[in-house]
Amino acid sequence: MLFKDIIGHGALKQSIIKSINEGRISHAQMFLGAEGSGALALALAYIQYLFCVNKTETDSCGNCSQCHRIAKLMHPDVHFVYPVALSKEKGVEKSSDLFREWAEAFLDDPYLSLGDWMDFIGAENKQPTIAVEESKDILHKMSLMAMEGSYKTMIIWMPEKMNLSTANKLLKVLEEPPDKTLFILVSESAQMLTTILSRTQLTKVLRCEEIEIAGALIKTHGLSQEAASAIAKACEGNYRLAQMMVKGEVDAEFNMQRFQQWMRVCLNMDGLKLSEWVNETATIGREKQKQFLAFTIKTIRQSILLGLNYPAAINPADQDFMTKFSPFINYENGAFMVDELNDAYYAIERNANAKILLMSVSIKLHTLFPQRRKTA
To answer: b/e map of 98-124 (b: 16 or more CB within 10 Å)?
Structure first.
């Protein structure tokens, strides 16, 4: 993973590079960044730069044997831990039991979310965890000598999913690690044992800038400047969400039809129609639910712009509905709606019951519309 392939974070990249070149390498580090920030990709780029034999002042070379093997997740001294759905039937007790799947998923998209990963391994309805068996494997791997004489490294993704027993077993090795070992914990939330946090050097990975996301969408997906800017603004620094919005554009007609149905039942609070809509939407699968929620967030934002007489990117076929719907959305209630929808998106990511969630969000949206209601 090259630094140049990661969106934004120019100052942070330079800080990381400087610390490595000056030999300031903490044995236990925490990369803390929200979903879609690129924290996991940055952690791997850090290790690749550390190992690279022909590094420059701005990046690893990408051509030496060290870079090639790390980029393919095949380096013998670079290990990974990540949440899995435990299964005796499938023989899954620790993350290494699914390394082939992990490598495929990460290499396909370094910005993958926990929900993406659980979907990939077909465990979307199971609880992701880093279990106690994992700690034994970590301690064993990190006790061995580095095979190539450099650092023995371990990237732990989503350490907040460690159970208490796992975390407690890792405390000593984090505090008194073997020589030439490096732990990088990559977390979206600091909700874990304070004793773990206190043993790591914190690196905060901020959300991506709008202009950086827009540029990446234009380059990667061939979007127009207008479309890329609209998505970059709507995703609030979450490049993973931006990708979902792009995918949602493929199903724009499907999503707009579902959006119109939803807003009508929320406006008028027709219990029977709402129940029918919720039941139907709950069956389309979590990935499409996420795409739909991302589409809804973008469309609510467009409605806010219409209400403020700002230009909005609207399909001409949807102009009539949006013209009638936008008076129900203002800056204040629209902002609350976007917050509710963002919360719903992340809840779906984390295996929330779709029926209960969508019904709850529908009721909240209903209360945010003006008191005087009419069908859009």
So the answer is: beebbeebbeeebbbbbbbbbbbbebb
Class of residue 287 by CB neighbours under 10 A (exposed 0-12, middle 13-18, buried 19+): middle
Contacts of 162 (CB under 8 A, 6+ apart): 129, 130, 134, 156, 170, 192, 196
* The predicted structure's pLDDT at residue 54: 96
Give the global pTM: 0.76
According to DSSP, the β-strands at 181-187 and 201-205 are unpaired
If we measure between CA atoms, which residue out of 219, 218, 174, 176 comes closest to residue 196?
174
State the DSSP code for 97: G
Looking at the predicted structure, is the pLDDT value of residue 133 above 80? Answer: yes
CATH architecture observed for domain 251-368: Up-down Bundle (1.20)
Cβ–Cβ contacts within 10 Å for residue 75, how many?
A: 21
Beta strands across the sheet bearing 28-33: 78-81, 152-157, 181-187, 28-33, 201-205
Cα(223)–Cα(216) distance, rounded to whole angstroms?
Answer: 9
Two structure tokens written together for 102: 């992990």
The domains of the chain are located at 3-205, 251-368
Q: What is the pLDDT of residue 370?
A: 83
| CATH number attached to the domain at 3-205 | 3.40.50.300
| pLDDT grade for 95, boundaries at 50, 70 and 90 | very high
For residue 368 the two structure tokens come to: 């945010």
Q: Which ranges of 89-187 does DSSP label H, i.e. alpha helix?
A: 99-108, 114-120, 132-143, 164-175
Binned at pLDDT 50, 70 and 90, residue 374 comes out as very low
Q: Could you give phi then psi for residue 302, rounded to 5 degrees?
A: -65, -35
